[in-house]
């Protein structure tokens, strides 16, 4: 099939989270199955780095959106390691900014233009998509554009739309006065009328109403977002469309995240030879400036430090854990000041046990996954999550709250049966987190003798878990075929 895949971020060109990873990995997996996939994304300032080469596709296309004249050009490069073309929408006024996302007055326009430009690119290049695959609120106007402003063009006569929700907490809600600037004022009757009367426009809701199919990034999250607790106000609409709502678990790039070949870690290891993992632990201690204590487990954290990620639970739990146990903690991440302040204070209070790096480093992220003994993800909610998958791949059992994709990938370890691949707590409270950590530390024991063999079983269970896109892409193909006429 022909797939036009439109996203606000695509790794490695621009990435702020899991969306960027998926927007690279899924098109790559689809192309490997023989589909003709074209990706469209903005040409942010950060995309234009030395050493990257782009070919101009066309220049000075004009969009008249309301009273605004938008001029953009399009450049092309290949997704690294593939022949998949990536089309970059170049509009300096909209995209030459320090951040991918902003709180600027024209945020609605930045991503309305992306949706319009994606369909113009298809027109200009003669690409006839069977599927337009939109991702999150930033591209959620695409399903409505196909049904209205581009419905005249026979190029799109057989085109159907799929919208993937990566995080329903971000919806693109704006004052209704911006409707004119979206170029869809003639289609105002297609927007949710109650919200319009209340003076609001919600991009994500618009996409939910008009896409032919809706997917989200794990089966559990697909169920959760149909409830008031997790639906963030959109649960009634999702329940109405549950017959075309599918939860498809994300995968990871098993070529990049492979402890046998990873160029970002100093020592390779495998499910049959785990000795290199212990040497990575030594390297992690050296990098973090912590003493190497073989019997003391290292708990790793690589995360955005945000409310969603559940670190509030750590405030009352980790200080006592560090006081009473010989555990070490290595944290890599940036985010809300209160979480950065907390982890910085922990590092100051326990200088031989805790290191906190308030930045992001891809090599250090890989080293934490490879060198830590356990990985902590106490997320309040988690649509899918990728770090627990990286951890499983690297023999680093995750400690997680049972929610979203964490529930779909991490199963509680049963030492009697030798089954399970991590540690799971049910209730999102400090008692739940203490339970998960206590279970992990009991299983670790002293890190020797029978305890070590039990731990090795747990590690290997995780490393055997199937996490790649080959297991996921078939589900997307099934959704595409369900909605695409004659395919």
TrEMBL record:
GO molecular function, one term: alpha-1,4-glucan glucosyltransferase (UDP-glucose donor) activity
UniProt entry tagged with the keyword Transport: no
Biological process annotations from GO: glycogen biosynthetic process
Enzyme Commission number: 2.4.1.21
Origin species: Labilithrix luteola
Classification via InterPro entries: Glyco_trans_1, GS/SS, Starch_synth_cat_dom
Presence of the UniProt keyword Transferase in the record: yes
Gene3D superfamilies assigned to the protein according to its UniProt record, in alphabetical order: Glycogen Phosphorylase B
Reactions it catalyzes: [(1->4)-alpha-D-glucosyl](n) + ADP-alpha-D-glucose = [(1->4)-alpha-D-glucosyl](n+1) + ADP + H(+)
Superkingdom of the organism of origin: Bacteria
UniProt-listed SUPFAM superfamilies: UDP-Glycosyltransferase/glycogen phosphorylase
Name of the protein: Glycogen synthase
Keyword annotations: Glycogen biosynthesis, Glycosyltransferase, Transferase
Stated role: Synthesizes alpha-1,4-glucan chains using ADP-glucose.
Positions of the Glycosyl transferase family domain: 295-434
Protein's pathway: Glycan biosynthesis; glycogen biosynthesis
EC class: transferase
GO CC annotations on file: cytosol
PANTHER family, A to Z: ALPHA AMYLASE DOMAIN-CONTAINING PROTEIN, GRANULE-BOUND STARCH SYNTHASE 1, CHLOROPLASTIC/AMYLOPLASTIC
Domain Starch synthase catalytic: 2-239
Chain positions recorded as ADP-alpha-D-glucose binding sites: 15
Family recorded in the similarity comment: Belongs to the glycosyltransferase 1 family. Bacterial/plant glycogen synthase subfamily.
NCBIfam families to which the protein is assigned, alphabetical: glgA, PRK00654.1-2
CDD domains: GT5_Glycogen_synthase_DULL1-like (cd03791)
